[in-house]
Amino acid sequence: MGLLTRISVLIVTLFVVVCIAAGAYVVDNARRAVTADMNAKARLTLDLLEAELVRGGAVGDPVRLGQFLDRLATMESTRHLRIAVRAPGAGEPLTGMRLQAGRTIDAPAWFTRLVAPEGVTARRLLSEPGIHAMELELLADPADEIAEAWSEARSVLVLMIVFTAMVMGLIYFRLGRDLSPIDSILRGLEGIERGEYQLRLPAFATSELGRISNKFNHMAQVLMESRAENRRLSQGSLQIQEQERRHIARELHDELGQSLTAIKAMAVASAATPAEPGRLRASMEEIARIADHTYGVARQLMQRLRPPVLDVLGLAAALQDLVDRWNSANGEGFCRLALHGDTGMLSDAVRISLYRIIQEALTNVARHGHADQVDVSLRVGGAGEVELVVADDGAGFEQPLARPGLGLLGMRERVAALGGEFALVTAPGRGTRIRITLPAVAESAA
Amino acid sequence: MNPIRVLLVDDHAVVRAGYRMLLEQAGVTIVGEAESGESACRMFVETQPDVVVMDLSLPGISGIEAVRRIVAREAKARILVFSMHDDPVFIDQAINAGARGYITKRSAATVMLDALRAIAAGRVYIEPGLAQELAFRKIRETDNPFAGLSTREFEICMLLAQGCNTTEIARRLSISYKTVANYSTQIKGKLGVGTTAELARLAIRHNIIQP
Hints:
- The structure holds two protein chains of two kinds.
- Chain A is an alpha+beta fold.
- Chain A has eleven helices and nine strands.
- In chain A, the strands form two sheets. Chain A has a five-stranded mixed sheet, with helices on one face.
- Chain A is rod-shaped.
- Chain B is 52% helix and 12% strand.
- In chain B, strands 2-1-3-4-5-6 form a six-stranded parallel sheet, with helices on both faces.
- Chains A and B meet through α7, α8 and α9 of A and α4, α7 and α9 of B.
């Protein structure tokens, strides 16, 4: 059920309950009023009758009493009375007026039923010295009283219903207006689902919805920037891949292709010409020399693609080799390697990731750091958990970087893929410290 | 002289076929061929060869690991490592694992025969032109402080012990003066010596260099 409907139903129920309670009160009041009215009228009538009968001397004289009552019956105002005279205690009346047939009351049947008093019968004993006592019995019809009560009650009820309807209408209208921004929010979210991160919501008047629209806008902004960053990273990755491929293709073409062509030419030439030991030997030696050179190029390419030390000799030896090569290539800074624990238990994915991360970190130091000292510390725990720290005393840089280089991003991605944590601490002039932890039995990425 | 009995381990069938032909021509008996580290260990037990010719780049357990396992099982096992790589690091590690010899696939066929004969006779053999001294340090003594040095460090350490100064070492190895100085400090720290003279004495004592 919608919010609006739910609130409306709640209010309606509340008002209905109030109406019913008020209605019951009104009806109860009416009943009391009618009863009181009736009793008062009966008393008054009896008083007047008594006075009249006694004055006219009809008491004790049934004939004169009968004439009096007949005369009374013709009067308009007594139409709804039934008066009977009987001897005290007697069942049968001596004489009496009939009550006119019940008339239609000017009020709804339900109201009448609720409000009508049980038959109002009043009795009065007439006694005069020397005359037989008589009892007057009065039965009245409450029609007028009920009609009057109804007209009063009706006004109150109508007023209440009108008021309720007005309030409900107002609330429904007002609430509807306040909740209408929810539609825009939903449309906005659908847009986000489709990838339209440029959508923004306007500021809404209601404070709660206004806060939602602020958060929505912020979220859309973050998504937009994140997607842009992802694209940049992918493109950068692809670019680097293409560069590597181009380099390898060029080396293969320039060095290997040419060398093999030369070897072939020489071999074919030697096979064609008649054997001349001197020339033949010279050609063979040249072929051997070219083969050696080709071998050297192939080895360099191999090293560039995937260092053989890593696959053949393991991570410890590979890292030592990496550090020694780096030291030899960088006259300025010196790197020290400290290994603890058994690197042999690490999975292939972890090994290559650690190698590349350290390789990237050292490359960065060489390129930007101007460091004197770099310390690489790798610790492998009993269950395969890893802690790697690369710290240098170089130039450091401003953090956070507006656009982190692909190398750093790549490092973070590798660590994230292995379920680990990456922390970088740096400041201009304070050097750089990278700390990576990988969990025990690291989940290997594909 | 009895023909040398050889177990050939290489994951390339072409290489095995080529060398089999070569060796059999020279009177060597090939008692078995294996194409992985695990099957090498198994076949070593089955065929009991005089020499095992082992490639380093094998699928499954690496060649180095296979060398270790065989030597662990049979301390007198004679293994000739035969690899594409000529980097001193590889030679270092192979000898450290227990191999008796190291030759590259680039070397001439005769080198393999020389190596086989030397190793079968109980000697060690490193292909001429490769870093001899580096490898031998592992063979001389099993428990020496120089074992903790990396290949590069050992290289520099040797030169220091032989009396070269920092500038000379830098020139020889084509690295910077600063790098040599840093290595020098690090090496002395690892060996627990204070001066180059002490380093030299330690080297002599452990037969790393001749006095």
